[in-house]
Amino acid sequence: MTNYIDAAVSRSRTTLSIFVAVMLTGFVSYLAIPVELNPDVAVPIVITTIIHEGISPEDAERLLAKPAELELKTVDGITSVSSFSSENAATIVTEFDIDFESQFALSEVREAINRAKARFPADTEEPLIQEVSAATLPVVQIAIGGEGVPERVLLRIAEDLQREIEILPPILEATMVGNREELLEAVIDPAKLETYGIPSSAIIQTVMGNNRLIPAGQVDTGGGSFAVKVPGLIETADDLFDLPLASTDLGVLTISDIADVRRTFKDATRYSYANGSASISLNVMKRKGANLVQAMEQIDGVVQAMIPSFPPAVSISYINNTAPIVVEQNMGLQGNMATAMILVLLVVIASVGVRSGLLVTLAVPFSFFFAFIIIRMLGFTYNFMVMFGLLLGLGMLIDGAIVMVEFADRKMAEGLDAREAYKKAVERMFWPIMASTATTLAAFLPIMFWPGVTGQFMSYLPITVFAVLTGSLFYALLFAPTIGALIGKSSDADKAYLRSLESGDPRNTGGITAFYAAALERAVRFPITVSVLSLVTLVTIVMAYGRFGKGVEFFTEVEPNQTTVQVFSRGNFSPSELRDIMLDAEERIRTVGHFKGIVTQSGAGQQMGGFQQSAPDLVGSIFIEMTDRRDRDIDGFEVENEYRRAISNLPGARAEVVSVAQGPPVGKAIQLELAGDDLDELFAEAERIHDHMENGMSGLIDIDDTTPVPGIQWEIVVDRARAAMLGASMAEIGTAIQLMTNGVFMGDYRPTDSEEEVDIRVRYPVEYRGLDQIDSLRISTLNGPVPLSSFVTREAKPAVSSIQRVDGDRVVYIRANAAPGVVADNKVQELEAWIEANPPRQGVYLEFRGANEEQEDSAAFLVTAFSLSMALMAILLVTQFNSYYQALLILSSVLLSTAGVLLGLLTTGQTFSIMLTGIGIVALAGIIVNNNIVLIDTYNHLRNEHKDWSLQEIIVHTGVQRLRPVFLTTFTTGFGLLPLAMHVSIDLIGAEVEVGGPITSQWVSLASAIVFGLSFGTILTLIVTPAMLALPDRLRNMIGRAPKHMPIMEAELSN
Question: Would you say the C-alpha torsion 421, 13, 431, 377 has a positive or negative sign?
Fold first, then answer.
């Protein structure tokens, strides 16, 4: 297996050419990889939105949601069907198995909805079916506003921008938000209808009958064939204005005689403001795989090119622009990696000299560029999780190079030239390096099979680590020996020291080595004592952490640079009243300051869809983009706290600050699902638990539930017998009621200045639009004008704002966040204990969902993955050493090093992050295993080579020979990550040192786990592992020679 090195060294020019080619190809791949914030995770969810204007929540459930649910349940692969019925619409959320094919799922859902459409009411709009994906999240929101700018001008500018942006290659679509739909409205005068004796239904029939496409065909005249055209569609407002209604002796009565026709907008149900002025926004989504930064540059180019053509009062601003976040995250992490590389280089040079130091440090760029080639070939983007994998790999990739270079240095100290020394290093260290890399990869292999959305999100991590470590393996076994054979040279000062490590007395080397040799010699004499102390230390740390630990969290909380304020209120508010509530909240935010962009949107239930449904009483949201943290004297967490204090006493409303969470979307930290058949019992139980969370528990904020918002709706009761006696039909009565509310839909037309169809509606003037007009309004019947009040009464009845179902069952959610400084997992345990002591009503079933459910699933998987990793590593170690004891010894060092992580968490007061700390432990296992594999391999080699040495001499020489490479591995990895572990970001590229900030808060849990665990594990590797190697011999001496019927045990102990 090692003969290849002769060819590689003898053909060094070819080898170096391959090395340079990989570096250049990797660099080009790095430049070509698309950059984005988060991985494009294919969430197995399809959302169907069914709109029917004016429909009530009860009717939406009965007529829209239930027929759709029945058809969707017949589709294969569906795990859950949820519905959310509210006024004007029903939303169906269909969840599939995680291994679903998105196009197949969309096709199956579309077919099921098409079958259900036959049972929808006639006026139901075409259902909107869309897949949930990270790619559908906007990369930027472009706000178009300006004080005093007419709404129609803003709409035209938004449409022009939308058209130009959507033709850009990286852009998928740009959706408009905050705009009102255009409308051709005919406002009819009821008095004139009564005067002329024209029923309202006649107007409807006239408009609908004169707005049809008439395919007239062709006519053959004998002299040719000619197309015949009959213009039957309404194309302008004048076409509607001039439609004839009736004819008399005095002439023709047209719509213009009884109605005012105008081009306008639909009544406002939502309001949008950007930086203090009314606005229309464009939410821009990029295509999958497109480079986010380049896409934003092209978008900005289009906007800047069009600004000169806009009126001077128009302002364009970018809100929630993710490109600068990605650039800062990317550059900040690269700067910290560069810092780590410089620190590694300095430490290695100080230990093994300039040549060897450069040889070791080259492993970092080569491994990264090799990984970029693989990432590019796999079609990955350069996102948060890929950066995570690169940072993890940085702590592990130089181990093989250190081992190889250090061994070659010792051989050169013995008198071999560089060429022979590196050949010997490859022959001697090939299998230990292979085994150590394989065991590290085995630690990450199970993570590739992480199930669910979280698994898809995390899958980028192990693949990136595999790519980095594969590159480091090639470098350590091929390129490092080749380059070392050409430039390697051991300094004279090192030669005497290195020779003493091979055959001299280690205690005479002086300095740290002599001190370590003396300490190790003492530990080897008392292996049982060392073993007991190690076990006691492990148990003590675990028990201390169980008692004093800060708890568990899913993802580490990262300092925000943007946040959202959501406002909730219960009552029958008009859109203008909701707008005033939101503007009051915005003004309070403005008094706090610390923002550079602010977008306010009002409208009940405007946060529909997505990964988590909002509370039914949501009336609006305020998106806040904070000023640069360098320009503030407080961090992002404190800014959010100030916002919370400012909005804490909104009159008639409550508000909460929603931080931007890391990782896969899971909603609020605490989510409790209540399901049951009896709605009264369900709502009562929800109220009981909500009250306990609000008044009986501390440390919870943003508590809400999804119980329907109480309100009033007016029910129009028609005396059908009385109406029939007076000659009034239900159709005429219904039309009259519609004319007093939203108007009657007559069809649509496409004006020449619009790309979208415009609705045509007929309605009464403003002074006639009210339920109190029922008493005075008269309708035309066959018996003449009749007052509506003759057979119509109105009753105020309780209104249901929304109805939520999961798999056919009514459900209610109670949700909350943990207050700053409080661990959500501890509150969940407290709530679980209270529920166990105070069980719910009979027929009501409880289950924790959201972040807690995802956290428990992830924790359970990580335990399984860690166990499987240990089993895979055990197989590899037994194969390498052919010894159960030595394999068990190495695996035990992994468990013992985990105690160092817990000790670090206790010391720093950090919370155990399931994702970051857990993955850090997996990475730590790889590093610790590497050191122990090479140490035990050296022990076995010395034992076979020096038969005349005592066991104690062999172990002491083993430890001393491995001291420097273990120290280098520990110190370079730990020192490189130490700034991040201490909440310090040192960016050499950007020439910036920052304490705190998003970069450090994002990676501190990972860095801390590796730094503390590695520091603790190094002591185990250098003291406990060598002492444990002497344990079998000591036990044999204590209990005497093993009986003859135990040959396997005796052979194992001897080995």
Answer: positive
How many domains does the chain contain in total? 4
CA distances from 806 to 63, 377, 810 (A): 17, 41, 6
List the structure tokens of 917: 């700390």
Cβ neighbours of residue 1044 closer than 8 Å, sequence gap 6 or more: none
930 near 472, Cβ under 8 Å? Answer: no
Residue 305 DSSP one-character state:
H
Using CA atoms, how far apart are residues 329 and 351, in angstroms rounded to an integer?
Answer: 33
**925 plus 993 within the same structural domain:** yes
276 located within any domain = no
Provide the CATH number for the domain around residue 723: 3.30.2090.10
CA distances from 479 to 435, 866, 1008, 1010 (A): 19, 33, 32, 28
For the chain, the straight-line distance linking the first and the last C-alpha, in angstroms and rounded, comes to 25
From the centroid of its chain, how far is CA 387?
15
Where among 78, 113, 134 does a domain terminate?
134
CA distance 661 to 406: 44
Question: Do 932 and 439 form a contact (C-beta atoms < 8 A)?
Answer: no
**Residues 123, 124, 125: CA angle, nearest 5 degrees:** 115
CB proximity list for 333: less than 8 A, separation 6 or greater: 387, 390, 391, 999, 1003
- Asked if residue 921 is part of any domain, the answer here is yes
* Angle at CA of residue 702, ends 701 and 707, nearest 5°: 130
Determine the distance from the C-alpha atom of residue 572 to the mean position of all C-alpha atoms in its chain, rounded to a whole number. 35
Tell me which residue range forms the domain holding 1001: 506-548+882-1055
622 neighbors 586 (Cβ within 8 angstroms): yes
**Whether the Cβ atoms of residue 8 and residue 357 lie closer than 8 Å to each other:** no
The three-class DSSP label of residue 1043 is: coil
Could you read off the pLDDT of 184-242 as tens digits, one per residue?
A: 888 888 888 777 777 777 777 888 777 777 776 777 777 677 777 777 777 777 777 78
Greatest mean pLDDT among 339-343, 374-378, 928-932, 986-990 lies in 374-378
Backbone phi, then psi, for 784, in 5-degree steps? 100, 180
Identify the CA nearest to 854 among candidates 671, 629, 678, 653. 671
- Give the phi and the psi of residue 798 in degrees, each rounded to 5: -60, 140
| Rounded Cα–Cα distance for residues 330 and 517 (Å) | 44
CB 50 within 8 Å of CB 38: no
CA-wise closest residue to 404 among 2, 881, 946: 2
Location of structure tokens 């990432």: 375
Q: What are phi and psi of 463, to 5 degrees?
A: -65, -40
Cα angle value 962/964/970 (rounded, 5°): 95
Q: Which residues pair with 787 in a beta bridge?
A: 778
| Nearest residue to 22 via CA among 448, 362, 431 | 362
- For the chain, the 3-state helix, strand and coil shares in percent, each to the nearest 5, are 55, 20, 25
The DSSP secondary structure of 781-814, one letter per residue, reads ETTEEEEGGGTEEEEEEEEE-EEEEETTEEEEEE
User: Of 930, 901, 881, whose CA–CA distance to 441 is shortest?
Assistant: 930
Reported pTM: 0.75
Domain's final residue, options 102, 134, 166: 134
Q: Which residues contact 566 (CB under 8 A, 6 or more apart)?
A: 607, 614, 618, 620, 621, 622, 655, 656, 658
Instruction: Give strand pairing partners of 655.
Output: 567
* Amino acid making up residue 706: T
Residue 91 and residue 94: Cα distance in Å, rounded? 10
* Residue 20, number of CB atoms within 10 A of its CB: 10
Q: What is the pLDDT of residue 495?
A: 54
Question: Per the structure block, which two tokens stand in for 680?
Answer: 């009264």
726-767 per-position pLDDT tens digit: 888 787 788 888 888 888 887 788 777 777 788 888 888 888
Give the helix ranges, DSSP H, for 353-491: 354-361, 363-378, 384-394, 399-413, 418-444, 452-458, 460-474, 480-487
